């Protein structure tokens, strides 16, 4: 029996709208009548198949007071009776372990959020440990190492991967299907005179999250280095944790932080002349916070931000706040700089980690990277399922999908 689920006492509140449970370890929980009824675990109410709807909440009266509540003989279930029950011969039953696990007191809710917070590498100590592909190749345990790194710090640096073009897709689909985008299903990054995007030039690219013109940016991104000739000057990859930068802004300049959570920025790719004409446009705040005031998304792409059109009194506050965030993102101590060599591959969460590139002078050489994306939720699902299969204690930490759980 779950020790935490042992009950000391159960009582009905004076207003008969809640049950107060005192657990043997001293913790106290309160559960509302509707919450209890709508989470009933009896054979008629419990959802045995994903997607099944067993209880029609709309049929219940606005209020149905609790008239009885008792723990069963085996002390593992709570039985509750209501005045106003709409199902004939119904007894509401809830396992005590379920109740304890889902307690929604402030302390338990705080823990739920806290357990799923991102952990940042301390500024100035942002050293990426390379993971040799030979230690990863072909095993669940190896793949899990990659997923764990992306989950924990947002990025994994693999070295020694094959430099053939097929490898990237073969590897990526072990995490999830490739997701199409305005760049295509997978794409090359090179300076070959194709001027459809600044990516395919030798210009400096400041930190950005890719594809901000979508309602939801693409998730996990791969950069596989196929060729990077030694004669090339510059061209280093740079990455920085946007969530860390946003948290720093919140601490250092709370008013500016609030501005960026409130005033939206428009991101767009509108180009009717390119090979695949495109109209993508969306408006969203640069930083999104949720019900618990947790940062749940950061959108930063100064190459895709469209003309600012917000209410007059928001224009200057937006520019001032955006400048502050930009300056934090580019702080040297928050940055990882890496000159890729053929066989290197960076795997990172594009919802969390911004990337960029130093300008380069080719001196006749070639810099050729291949890239693709996998949905961020497919990635986290793979992490949880694989971790569980391998017997690891895995936690679904935040991934930047607009949710802190
Ligand atoms: Zn039931
Ligand atoms: Zn609690």
Automatic annotation (TrEMBL):
<keyword id="KW-0408">Iron</keyword>
<dbReference type="InterPro" id="IPR038492">
    <property type="entry name" value="GBBH-like_N_sf"/>
</dbReference>
<keyword id="KW-0124">Carnitine biosynthesis</keyword>
<dbReference type="GO" id="GO:0046872">
    <property type="term" value="F:metal ion binding"/>
</dbReference>
<keyword id="KW-0479">Metal-binding</keyword>
<keyword id="KW-0223">Dioxygenase</keyword>
<comment type="similarity">
    <text>Belongs to the gamma-BBH/TMLD family.</text>
</comment>
<protein>
    <submittedName>
        <fullName>Gamma-butyrobetaine dioxygenase-like</fullName>
    </submittedName>
</protein>
<dbReference type="InterPro" id="IPR042098">
    <property type="entry name" value="TauD-like_sf"/>
</dbReference>
<feature type="domain" description="TauD/TfdA-like">
    <location>
        <begin position="130"/>
        <end position="372"/>
    </location>
</feature>
<comment type="pathway">
    <text>Amine and polyamine biosynthesis; carnitine biosynthesis.</text>
</comment>
<dbReference type="InterPro" id="IPR010376">
    <property type="entry name" value="GBBH-like_N"/>
</dbReference>
<feature type="domain" description="Gamma-butyrobetaine hydroxylase-like N-terminal">
    <location>
        <begin position="12"/>
        <end position="83"/>
    </location>
</feature>
<dbReference type="GO" id="GO:0045329">
    <property type="term" value="P:carnitine biosynthetic process"/>
</dbReference>
<dbReference type="InterPro" id="IPR003819">
    <property type="entry name" value="TauD/TfdA-like"/>
</dbReference>
<keyword id="KW-0560">Oxidoreductase</keyword>
<dbReference type="Pfam" id="PF02668">
    <property type="entry name" value="TauD"/>
</dbReference>
<dbReference type="Pfam" id="PF06155">
    <property type="entry name" value="GBBH-like_N"/>
</dbReference>
<dbReference type="GO" id="GO:0016706">
    <property type="term" value="F:2-oxoglutarate-dependent dioxygenase activity"/>
</dbReference>
<dbReference type="InterPro" id="IPR050411">
    <property type="entry name" value="AlphaKG_dependent_hydroxylases"/>
</dbReference>
<dbReference type="GO" id="GO:0005739">
    <property type="term" value="C:mitochondrion"/>
</dbReference>
């Amino acid at each position: 029996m779950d020790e935490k689920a042992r009950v000391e006492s159960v009582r009905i509140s004076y207003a008969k709208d809640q049950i107060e449970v005192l657990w043997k370890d001293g913790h106290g929980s309160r559960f509302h009548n509707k919450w209890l009824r709508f989470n009933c675990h009896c054979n008629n109410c419990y959802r045995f198949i994903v997607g099944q709807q067993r209880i029609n909440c709309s049929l219940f009266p606005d209020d149905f007071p609790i008239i009885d509540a008792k723990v069963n003989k085996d002390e593992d279930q709570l039985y509750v009776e209501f005045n106003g029950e709409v199902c004939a011969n119904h007894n509401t039953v809830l396992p005590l372990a379920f109740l304890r696990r889902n307690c929604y007191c402030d302390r338990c809710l705080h823990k739920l959020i806290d357990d799923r917070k991102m952990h940042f590498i301390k500024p100035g100590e942002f050293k990426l440990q390379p993971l040799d592909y030979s230690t990863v190749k072909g095993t669940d345990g190896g793949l899990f190492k990659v997923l764990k790194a992306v989950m924990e710090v947002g990025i994994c640096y693999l070295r020694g991967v094959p430099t053939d073009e097929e490898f990237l897709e073969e590897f990526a689909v072990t995490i999830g299907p490739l997701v199409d985008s305005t760049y295509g299903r997978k794409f090359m990054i090179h300076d070959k005179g194709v001027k459809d995007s600044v990516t395919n030039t030798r210009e400096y690219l400041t930190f950005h999250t890719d594809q901000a013109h979508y309602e939801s940016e693409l998730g996990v991104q791969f950069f596989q280095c196929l060729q990077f000739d030694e004669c090339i000057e510059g061209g280093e990859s740079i990455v920085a944790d946007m969530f860390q930068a946003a948290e720093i802004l919140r601490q250092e300049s709370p008013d500016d932080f609030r501005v960026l959570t409130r005033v939206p920025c428009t991101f767009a790719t509108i180009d009717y002349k390119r090979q695949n004409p495109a109209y993508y446009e969306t408006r969203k705040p640069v930083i999104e916070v949720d019900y618990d005031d947790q940062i749940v998304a950061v959108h930063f792409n100064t190459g895709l931000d469209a003309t600012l059109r917000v209410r007059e009194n928001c224009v200057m506050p937006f520019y001032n706040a955006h400048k502050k965030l930009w300056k934090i993102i580019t702080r040297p101590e928050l940055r990882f700089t890496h000159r890729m060599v053929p066989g290197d591959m960076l795997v990172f969460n594009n919802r969390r980690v911004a990337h960029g590139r130093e300008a380069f002078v080719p001196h006749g050489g070639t810099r050729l990277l291949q890239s693709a994306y996998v949905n961020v939720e497919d990635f986290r699902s793979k992490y949880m399922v694989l971790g569980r299969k391998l017997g690891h204690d895995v936690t679904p930490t935040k991934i930047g999908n607009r949710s802190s759980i």
